[in-house]
Amino acid sequence: xxxxxxxxxxxxxxxxxxAQQDSIYIDAEIRANNRQISVTQExxxxxxxxxxxDTIKLLNWTAAYKNRNTPLAKxxxxxxxxxxxxxxxxxxxxxxxxxxxxxxxxxxxPHAFSENIFLPLSKSLKSGEKIKISLQYLINLPSPKxxxxxxxxxxxxxKYFFIVPDGFEEPSKKERFYLDIEENQSPGLYWKVNLNIxxxxxxxxxxxEIQPNYFEGILKNDPEFLISENHFPKITAQVDxxxxxxxxxxxxxxxxxxxxxFYLPLHLNFIKSKTGFLPQKIFVTEKFRDSENFSGISDLKxxxxxxxxxxxxxxxxxxxxSILSKKSIEQATIFEKSKDHWLTNGLKTxxxxxxxxxxxxxxxxxxxxxxxINIFGFKPLKLFYASDLKLAERYGLTYxxxxxxxxxxxxxxxxxxxxxxxxxxxxxxxxxxxxxxxAEKMGKEKFDDFIKDYLLKNSGNQIDQKDFLDHLSLxxxxxxxxxxxxxxxxxxxxxxxxxxxxxxxxxxVKISKNTDLNIPFKxxxxxxxxxxxxxxxxxxxxxxxxxxxxxxxxxxxxxxxxKYIFPENNFRDNYRYTKGLFANTKKIKLKLFKDIPNPEFxxxxxxxxxxxxxxxxxxxxxxxxNTSFFERKFNYSFTPYxxxxxxxxxxxxGLAYSFQPADSFYRSLDLGISGSYFHYDYDLTYRKFSAFAxxxxxxxxxxxxxxxxxxxxxxxxxxxxxxMSQTEYAKYNLWxxxxxxxxxxxxxxxxxxxxxQWMEDFQKxxxxxxxxxxxxxxxxxxxxxxxxxxxxxxxxxxxxxxxxSRVSNYAFSYGLLGQSATTGLLSQQLILAEGxxxxxxxxxxxxxxxxxxxxxxxxxxxxxxxxxxxxxxxxLDPKFIWxxxxxxxxxxxxxxxxxxxxSSLGFEPSFKDYGSRIRFTLVLNFNAVTNYFRRGWx
Length: 938
Description:
By secondary structure, the chain is of the alpha+beta class. It folds into 5 domains: about 1-230, Sandwich (Immunoglobulin-like); about 235-330, no CATH class; about 340-485, Neutral Protease, domain 2, CATH 1.10.390; about 495-585, Immunoglobulin-like, CATH 2.60.40; about 745-790 and about 830-938, no CATH class. It is about 20% helix and about 40% strand. The chain has 13 helices and 46 strands. The strands form 9 sheets. It has an 18-stranded mixed beta sheet that branches. It starts with a helix and ends in a 5-residue tail after the last helix.
């Protein structure tokens, strides 16, 4: 009966909608406990180009799941997700038994293994002409663990699996691939979908449901279908007499549902007041909820403790406003994700900013966390400037964080090329801040009216970026003229408040900008009583400093572009005080612990430090530095320590400056000097002075590949006792020139470095290569190769030799707890460098050495390792050595313990001193830890 009804409806609807652009009719049969879908489909295809068309391109994005070599699989690896790479054949997806009939011609069987199917036409399809394409095929759905779409045989989440025309490409041989970035396949089509589903199952969709499991309508994005045994909740809301139905593809708790019944009408009313548009139906899937949640408000969980930043009602409010605003913008008109992402994401973020300014204006960035963390009545987070920041400042701060590392990307970068962090920081936050900035300059009501009018006029068309920006420029009185060139490149725009002068009842403020773009700016004045006044000014294409008059004589503070309203390069030069000791300058502020920087002050951070080595024992110090959680171009750091082992002061310090051009072949050029003073043996100190230049090449933000070139000079002055004076180097100069390449990809991780080092008595060259292969999920094998050769060697001891099982820390660059330890636990610390042997199979090499280190996973925390190599000392024959054993990964890559088994020395567990032969690695570098966990984001 369903089949007869379906055929009858096809005939009726073909007549009814044949005048429309493109239409798709689908009859899909889904069986319980089966991930295969049988599809009968018709496409009414229209040539919308101005010329005749000889080929039709269809998208078969199910093929993205066919194996580990697809663009989707490769992108997932960039995101450090290896499920698809290691998937079993039964979990993959593809199309089979595909038959296509074009017009009245006989059916053809094209190759269904490609994501792009090109259908040649027997005669050219003229502009405006239509043609019917009939298809039959079977979809083998992938496991949903890869992208959230697919089936486990009990629940079906369908999106991008049906074969459709490419909605954005002119008919050509250019291919388009599925990357799981919520791209649009073929928006703006008329859909009619009939789902034959198992008994006791129900279906949901973003299409309008005409009758159970029967959907139709026009969509400005792509259809989604959820088939499940569960009946998930729905909430309807009335706004200005119009009804919007919100369907959820997951269960809601009773409290969450009650919260949403209150908040959703509020959200929709606010969105409509800003955009003039609301969809009749919104379907929220689990995947969409998780990707569009309001970031940064989740509870903090540590061990058995949980701290709330926001209560459950506030989280529901903010999360679902973010979700609904994105859904509404996406359904208002047609966007192409790759190039139009900044429009959808920017407008969505603008709505968020406006919503926060309306309902959360005084809410703090950290919410209730500073109040909730209470230690015997003391609230430590209240000491941090971060606890004073407003929630609305999150947008500018996020951009500042990534920009200060020179890892940001231009706003108009194709979305698929953006790093995961930049997808938020740039596409969402920076663009939304710019819209908010323009809206404040031209007037919020005027900006909102422009958005309403533009979305209404273009509701059925694909958005035209240039047209949008041209109309915005006219509406803003040309204040937004800068927007188009601004988004085409990485910017380092900066407004600098140079100085002010007071004349009568006015301030004459001198301000410069470092760009020829006509960007407006805002000046705020604040009195001692907290009264704030705002003044907007337009600029021309000159970079010269200009005087701007402000009619407020009793202001205590003058600020340019306060609260990160514009994405500037540097906010630290935007503040001036008008009274007191710091008039016409900035105040100095001492702060404990790292914090988000307060641009209003020159901050000096005082951080207590605790360290240890075998000779100074416990080192208690205080670090003075100007860097915080955000990197700066000029950095200084000085740390005096009290050495409990010697009762003396020790310490270290340094200065550095980083050149970071926005667009160049290098990301940063760092120049600096440093010095340190510690004990390297009992009652013996060393003094080290260094000067360095480090050149880091530009990297693809989505890539884990980095390249660097470095040159350093080090001068060492060591105390030596009388017994050592003849054979030890008390003073020496050391030069290093090195190149490094690192590719930290998840499956095939590799790196290469080479180094030339020299001083008065030797010159040596070395090279190291590393390769780690994840051959099965969470199982890895690694290979390290090292080679070192002395070009000349006239040294008087073995200090500068290549280490075999221990490295000589003559440059004091390794994190050794016992610099000169030869016995005891500290002597067992292993630095995986030079020879890299774990067993004591040799001491050092003063002519050349080659070695290979192999490490492979066995079970859970346990690996096995093996090392082999050949080394040669002067006047002696080359010697072959090897060892093997078991490694326990307590904290992988940071704390690992090596148990030697068999080596050139014999069966080592039989040795009486076996306990002293066990080795361990320990990495205490916090930057190494943070870099490890941020892989895959930027």
